[in-house]
From TrEMBL:
Superkingdom of the source species: Bacteria
InterPro entries: DNA_repair_put, DUF4130, UDG_Type-4/5, Ura-DNA_glyco_family4, Uracil-DNA_glycosylase-like, Uracil-DNA_glycosylase-like_sf
Gene3D superfamilies per the UniProt record, alphabetical: Uracil-DNA glycosylase-like domain (3.40.470.10)
Source species taxonomy: Bacteria, Pseudomonadati, Pseudomonadota, Betaproteobacteria, Burkholderiales
SUPFAM superfamilies noted in UniProt: Uracil-DNA glycosylase-like (SSF52141)
Family label: Belongs to the uracil-DNA glycosylase (UDG) superfamily. Type 4 (UDGa) family.
Protein name: Type-4 uracil-DNA glycosylase
Pfam entry (one): DUF4130
Organism this protein belongs to: Massilia soli
tRNA-binding in keyword set: no
């Protein structure tokens, strides 16, 4: 087709009544040169690809070849083997437009590009004008390709893989409408340094190893071994900036076309937030911010400046303190509706915040061991925390625990008192100083004094022990063993007190 030994040239294929086979812009360019040199008119050529016409990835860099000759200086119609046919000079502007338009997935793209080139060779220079019918289509194809490149730059979301998974470190999945993967891959290669990454599409995938780009065939989906803490942090931030009172669903979809939502991390939570806004969250969104608006200072407390509202009916709606702003979700207690023993911790940790359940992280595993040694069945006790939202501070990519302030403990006492009324425990095990202060309502209570022996409070036994996280972080094996033994002893005391416990208040 292109003069390569063993292959039929494009002009010879047309003369024999055969189609011209192309799979990349480079192959089309060589075939067009040969056809122009032999003055083959567009209507005489049948262009085909080895696959569907919308697939250019049989050559991984189908649209933009690294060895392209400079546009504007090339002779698109130069006759091979010394043919006397006149050459056709192609301007840089036309060559750039043809090369870009070749990435546009439209029917018969190669035939259309040859028609444009043929008209140019016949002296019709206005073929690249937007006022010309063919020129308008060419401009439209170029614009569509540039728009798809922009959308890939904007809506690709790289996700970090587990450290033991090996390269690439980051992966992304995208479904482009046009063949722009090579250009986009070069864009990210120039901006992400030596960090390895991969972009997978239904037609091809490209990987950057830190120095070179490698292309492979299509993938069904991207890798599943994802461990991206940054994505969880992003979703937390996205929830925090979402204002249901100002929601405009039509505008939201006009800014980001719907075909991108399914591959965006926030796309999984937007429908739920839109539904909540329609179900009444707009009212809540307006209320909590009334006293926080910038403007003229008012001589009364912000809480009193807000209109009177009913108490929140669910924990997810709680805005009694500011911890909800940086937490993924509120973590409610878990256990039987009626339990004789209630365990109260300080607050949910990082894993509890993501899972929405109490004591599922490292501290929860140690708690299970201590309860097992004390022969206390976790399924028969009620587990909860004094504070229901995770309070943390950033350290690199990690979220480190930060002790809640007394005002935050007092704000959350509404929910702890509600749990005490509903569960009605006979014995409360306060794990840590914060839990002890929350259970007794005494801001000056100390864990050291309370651990001496159980005591009665409002008709219930109170047993104070170390929090499991304290056992994990206390230095020294001996100190860890002593703290763990103290926890086990406290659980055994709680079990023994059940027989002596008076009716709950």
């Amino acid at each position: 087709m292109d003069g390569t030994p063993g292959r039929v040239s494009a002009a010879a294929a047309v003369a024999a009544g055969q189609p011209v086979l192309v799979n990349s812009f480079g192959q089309w360019r060589d075939a067009a040169r040969d056809l122009l040199a032999h003055k083959v008119e567009p209507h005489a050529v049948q262009w085909v690809t080895s696959k569907d016409d919308a697939d250019l990835f049989s050559n991984p860099v189908a649209c933009l070849d690294d060895d392209e000759e400079p546009a504007g200086t090339g002779q698109a119609g130069e006759a091979p083997h010394g043919d006397a046919a006149s050459t056709v000079r192609v301007s840089r502007e036309l060559m750039d437009m043809l090369q870009t338009a070749a990435c546009c997935r439209v029917p018969n793209r190669w035939a259309f590009l040859y028609l444009v080139l043929w008209r140019w060779s016949q002296g019709e220079k206005d073929v690249i004008s937007a006022a010309d019918q063919d020129g308008a289509k060419l401009h439209s194809m170029v614009k569509a390709v540039h728009r798809e490149e922009h959308d890939m730059h904007a809506y690709i979301r790289f996700r970090e893989r587990r450290e033991d998974a090996g390269p690439p470190r980051f992966v992304a999945w995208f479904e482009p409408s046009h063949d722009v993967l090579p250009q986009v891959a070069r864009h990210f290669a120039s901006r992400m340094g030596r960090v390895s990454w991969m972009i997978a599409t239904p037609d091809a995938s490209v990987m950057w190893d830190g120095a070179n780009l490698h292309t492979t065939g299509p993938l069904m989906r991207g890798p599943e071994d994802i461990d991206d803490a940054g994505e969880a942090l992003w979703l937390t931030y996205y929830r925090s900036i979402f204002n249901p009172a100002r929601l405009n669903a039509d505008l939201l979809h006009s800014h980001i076309p719907s075909r991108f939502w399914k591959n965006l991390p926030e796309g999984a939570i937007v429908p739920e937030m839109v539904t909540q806004a329609a179900a009444g969250a707009r009212k809540v969104g307006q209320t909590h911010s009334v006293g926080q608006r910038a403007g003229t200072a008012i001589p009364i407390a912000a809480s009193k400046a807000q209109p009177q509202r009913d108490a929140p009916t669910s924990l997810d709606q709680c805005r009694r303190c500011d911890l909800w702003k940086n937490a993924t979700q509120a973590v409610d207690g878990a256990g039987p509706k009626r339990a004789r023993i209630m365990l109260v911790g300080e607050q949910p940790g990082d894993q509890e915040d993501l899972a929405g359940e109490p004591f599922v992280g490292p501290a929860g595993k140690l708690l299970d061991l201590a309860m097992a040694d004390a022969e206390l069945d976790r399924r028969k006790v009620y587990l909860t925390n004094a504070v229901k939202h995770f309070k943390w501070e950033p350290r690199g990519k990690r979220r480190l625990h930060k002790t809640p302030a007394q005002r935050e403990v007092e704000a959350c006492s509404y929910w702890l008192e509600r749990e005490l009324r509903l569960v009605g425990p006979d014995v409360i095990v306060a794990m840590g100083s914060t839990a002890l202060k929350a259970v007794t309502g005494d801001a000056h209570a100390t864990l050291k004094d309370a651990m001496a022996e159980p005591f009665m409070h409002e008709g219930r036994w109170i047993v104070a022990i170390y929090h499991p996280s304290y056992v994990l972080r206390v230095p020294g094996d001996d100190a860890k063993a002593q703290a763990f033994a103290a926890m086990v002893a406290g659980f055994r005391q709680a079990v023994a007190l059940l027989s002596a416990a008076p009716p709950a208040a």
